[in-house]
């Protein structure tokens, strides 16, 4: 029996962009654009009228912008929202703020650079809409700010295991979840490497947002830099991030190349590299997100003698990547958010 198509409402002040997004989405028979809106007040009325499954929302609009509209949607009619943003100086931080407030994912508007095509945007958007239709959403309170300025003295004398490495992979729903977790981290932790599926141009703003709520420094990773305790490193949106050991020290290795498991950066690349470099000192945590990226890499960590965990279904916004690892049998156990926090804090669970 055929399933009903996913009903989408497009909100954008540009008539051209509304028409473009509609055309791209409706190339897939499983997606139906039920209406469009050019501003926030009209969007709110249409949400009540057509009851969409997913909303695509422009960040920068005159009057009631995307941020104000998102607050209204989440307070009145919580449903999956995908932010569609320009990669401007203001657009990226606002998009990250929207993710913190409960938007499930984001997508950059096409710029025409580096061979980017509308069709590539369309394929990506359709995949995000299909995943978003399964997402669990609700009104959120953004994580409290507590970090942002750090001195070297704050991190002297770390009690963390100098050999232990924690690798985290996340996709849809990951930004808000990571912000909540990092807001609760203690000052002393093992090194944390994060691959979050996010378009180029947004990861720097997301790293800065994580840094603002965390007690440890968080930044977008730099090729060749040392990986040390009490730091967190976020993969750039257009590069794979791997861990290597050189002259007895762990370092970040940023790589180009093709997408892996449909993504760049890829969780699979990170997990396999951590398994190879850190062996039984590695800890892999596969979190909320669509698809299967990282599911096999988690098995590589487990086979190397490390610890391999996935976020449980109840706490996942989208139970895709963790579910894939569970089906493959590559995880040691599923964890709720307090359990994940324990590992990010370097506090092992009972064996």
What keywords describe this structure?
351 residues, alpha/beta, Rossmann fold, 2 domains, 7-stranded parallel sheet, 5-stranded parallel sheet, 11 helices, 14 strands, globular
How much helix, percentage-wise, in residues?
25-40%
* Oligomer classification: single chain
- Distance linking N and C termini: 46 Å
The CATH class of the largest domain is Alpha Beta
**Assigned CATH superfamily of the largest domain:** Methylesterase CheB, C-terminal domain
Order of helices and strands: EHEHEHEHEHEHEHEEEEHEHEHEH
Tell me the layout of helices and strands:
Blueprint: E1 6-11, H1 15-25, E2 31-37, H2 40-50, E3 54-58, H3 66-76, E4 81-85, H4 91-101, E5 105-108, H5 118-132, E6 165-170, H6 174-182, E7 192-196, H7 203-213, E8 218-220, E9 232-234, E10 240-246, E11 249-255, H8 267-278, E12 282-286, H9 295-303, E13 307-311, H10 321-328, E14 333-335, H11 337-344
Parallel strand pairs: 1-2, 1-3, 3-4, 4-5, 6-7, 6-12, 7-9, 8-9, 12-13, 13-14
Antiparallel strand pairs: 10-11
